Amino acid sequence: MNPEIEQIHGKEFPGEDGMLFVRTDGIIDTMIRIPLLVASLIIVAAIIPIQPSFSSPRNLDLIIYPDGTTHVSSEIDVDPLDIDYEFELFGSTIDNFVAISENGFLLNYDILGNSVLIETFGSSVITIEYDIHDLVSKQSRVWTFYLDAPSDFTLLFPKNSAIIGMTNLPLDMQLIDDQNQLTLSGGETEIDYLFSSPIVSVPVEPINSSPESNYFIYAIIGGIIVSAIVATIIRRKPRTTKLTQKQQIIQVEPIDIETIFKLKPDIREDDKEIVKFISKNGGEALESELRKKFLQPRTTMWRAVKRLERNGIIEIEKKDLQNLVKLRKNMEGEE
Amino acid sequence: MKILALLTIFVLIFGTTIFVNDAYAQNDLSILLHIATQADKQIQNQLYQVYGDEVPEKIQSLYAKGHTTVNSLEKSLLDNVKQTKKDFLTSMKLFKQISKMIPESVTETKVILSNTSYSNLSSQFDRLEKYVLTLKTISKKLDAKIDFEDVDNLLIKTHNQINDGAENTSETIIQLKSLIKSIQKDIRDSTSHGESDRVKQFVKKQLDVIESKLIEATESGTDQNQIDKAYELIDDIRDLISKNQINDAKMVFHELYKLLKNI
């Protein structure tokens, strides 16, 4: 009853002539485990900063009023075992401060300079709202918003304001009641804006750098126009009579896609499908709708739309930050 | 193993940083084009309004650079993310520079609170209206049954006065502020029972935890005087809570918290 225990791993094999052998058993396990461990650590490291911690705002939303005053609204996780919570405000000129617990109770607070001490007594989430006059300054006609934000935040600009300077890249932008709302990342942000007057059509074209470049551009434009005229004449000559009839057809609504295809026999089959869809859709469709319909990536669809535009089949208009693709009513203008 | 460990650390530090940095502004780079184009148009408009056809050469040159950069941004939008971001920041910097060069008689000002201009009064009104809305939401959530009729009427009156350009609008706004303050007090009074219950529950729970910690502190040989003082304060708090003197109980609780930090 004394069984001999046989060692499975780590069995030593005497090497011949004193040669050193490296033990290889379990190496496959190790090879699998280590990449797994690395992958897990990467995932954990990537997730950790995303998880909210106490004192970090869950969300931060700012609204700039036309007089430059800013409304701050923030939801913050606090330690439910604490009796109070000290919070750094974005400045010292504060109005209409309110702190609310997760149950909706108004919490007592005491503002001292740039910070506020809020009696939390067991609250785990508090909502803070206040108006502040320190975030926007004005020089000449330019208003400048500056904030060193502790987290990502949204910023709603006043109506009729136009952003004309930014130090950071926005994460997102939305239009809310004709007001621009930007989503920005935490850290220092400076944004300049001014109140826009209605855009007048400026007769002066953007400035060209030198007279030499002017001549060069004129030469290119002239060349393009001349070659376009020559190409049109060459292409039209053999079927002049037919085109006169087609011109009349094209100018009539709705657009006959068969006519388009006859006029543009060399367009690609997949482009034809897009034209058919737009035609069925009442002659216009958003580029995003086309992407969804044909399950194409953004760039592929963009190129297709650009091709059709170059062919004079469609025209692109901006609508709510999106491209609205419309079949042209008069293709002959492009021929 | 050492190499793997070093690789892990490297990937953790740089890899995750890259993920985080690259994630931003990738949502839709066309936003950048939209903002830059808006800024371009606005600057062009401002220049035309101020100078007409005679834009100073220096400003003209800056604007040309800015406009060219916006065009470059548009071209790089699909295939060169790095260039798009660079063009955006460059163009916005140039437009900002131009906008600060466009003259106006007004010199630098901070936001002036006492200004009674239409814009200021309107903004003040907007903020107070939002504040009232917040109070209404709180009141509704807590079922506080607060009458908002007076404040609503005063809001309408103020709104009309601002639109008519009435001289006494500032006085009405002061009245409005005062009324809002009293509403805030009404909400507190009306919800004081629920608020007291919340504080009571928290304090009672915390006192139990503190007492067990004091036992541990006694066993570990902490200064007995301090521990006795803590027990006295606990008794005071329990007494005050039983008498429903919540504010006093809160004050003593603060004192107890300070004392516990030293134990």
Question: Keywords for this structure?
Answer:
heterodimer; A: alpha+beta; Immunoglobulin-like; Arc Repressor Mutant, subunit A; seven-stranded mixed sheet; 7 helices; elongated; B: 263 residues; mainly alpha; 3 domains; 1% strand
Care to describe what's here?
The complex is a heterodimer of chains A (335) and B (263). Chain A is of the alpha+beta class and 335 residues long. Chain A has helices at residues 27-47, 211-236, 240-250, 257-263, 269-280, 287-294, 298-310, and strands at 57-64, 70-77, 84-88, 94-101, 109-112, 115-119, 125-132, 136-139, 142-149, 153-156, 161-166, 172-176, 179-184, 187-195, 284-286, 314-319, 322-327. In chain A, the strands form four sheets. A seven-stranded mixed beta sheet of chain A has the order 4-7-2-1-10-13-12, with no helix packed on it. A four-stranded antiparallel beta sheet of chain A has the order 8-9-14-11, with no helix packed on it. Chain A is elongated and about 80 Å long. The two termini of chain B are 46 Å apart. Chain B has three domains: 2-101; 119-190, no CATH class; 193-262. Chain B is flat, with a radius of gyration of 31 Å. The chains are: A alpha+beta (335), B mainly alpha (263). Chains A and B meet through α1, β4, β8 and β11 of A and α1, α2, α3, α4 and β1 of B. β8 (136-139) of chain A pairs antiparallel with β1 of chain B.
